[in-house]
Specification:
Length: 290
């Protein structure tokens, strides 16, 4: 049971907190049943994500054995059998899809799209240079869409753009660290890595970082944003966005972590504090006109 739980990659569920962004920025955090539906959606999306992770680990078991960190995963290390993983993945997929349609049919279609999209990514798309990172952006976009559906919120186009850019930022940083860690054997672990260079990825990271900051600044001062929240004080959240990005890059380049955003977030208390402060300032501005 311990290795079963670890195979579900519960740490990765933190990515599903993006589902709550529409709730926060749509001013529905205190609205029932939207807040309850968002919690349920988070749990169902986590089940679907775990099913996808299991399938991915089954397909990539041999390649993961070549990775210094991924080789320790239960399936790659042989501590959780492929047969058990297949059964668990099927059960989780059925449960997540069935209950998602019960919650909201459009949310159900989003979960279904997420699972199908992940299958396409695992078997084909992740081997295509640049497309593989754009797929990561697509996965985060589906989380935002799911959150918008269950919270009954129409998000600003700026939030959608920022979400995609942030996902690309995380994706390219992860590819960079995979190249650095794996060296010449990187292509054996992930086919697309043979077409990447650290220099090229650094250029992409620089472009995307600037784009995130610019997009968030434009969102904060956009006339529609000011009218919707009845305040222009969202600009005071900009420094936290700047610092969060710079802190993440500092960790990547200074300490040379493996690039897993979840692991970095869960181990860096300074970055955690920055995100908590950003969320609290956002809530104070949006809900209490601070």
């Amino acid at each position: 049971m311990r290795y079963l739980f670890l195979s579900l990659r519960p740490r990765q569920w933190i990515k599903n907190f993006f589902i709550f962004l529409p709730l926060v920025f749509g001013r529905k955090i205190f609205s029932f049943p939207e807040n309850l539906n968002s919690v349920i959606a988070f749990l169902l999306f986590s089940l679907a994500a775990s099913a996808v992770y299991l399938i991915n680990d089954i397909i990539d078991a041999k390649k993961d054995k070549l990775h210094p960190i991924k080789r320790l995963r239960p399936i790659a290390s042989g501590r959780f059998s492929i047969g058990q993983a297949k059964i668990t993945a099927i059960i989780l997929s059925i449960l997540s899809i069935a209950f998602s349609f019960t919650l909201n049919k459009y949310f159900g279609f989003t979960i279904l799209a997420y699972i199908i999209f992940n299958f396409m990514y695992t078997f084909f798309l992740k081997n295509l240079v640049i497309i593989d990172v754009f797929c990561i952006g697509g996965f985060f976009l589906l989380r935002i869409i799911a959150g918008s559906i269950v919270a009954n919120v129409q998000l600003s186009h700026w939030i959608l753009i920022i979400t995609i850019l942030l996902a690309l930022f995380l994706g390219f940083n992860k590819r960079r660290q995979e190249l650095r860690l794996m060296g010449k054997s990187a292509a054996k672990h992930r086919n697309s890595l043979i077409n990447y260079t650290v220099h090229y990825i650094d250029l992409m990271i620089a472009v995307i970082t600037s784009s995130i900051v610019m997009a968030y600044m434009l969102y904060a001062v956009d006339a529609r944003t000011i009218k919707e929240f009845n305040t222009s004080n969202l600009i005071y959240t900009i420094p936290f966005v700047y610092y969060g990005l710079f802190r993440y890059l500092y960790i990547i380049y200074r300490f040379r972590r493996d690039g897993d955003p979840t692991r970095i977030l869960l181990t860096d208390k300074v970055l955690q504090l920055d995100i908590i402060l950003w969320i609290n300032v956002c809530i104070a501005v949006i809900y209490f006109k601070a």
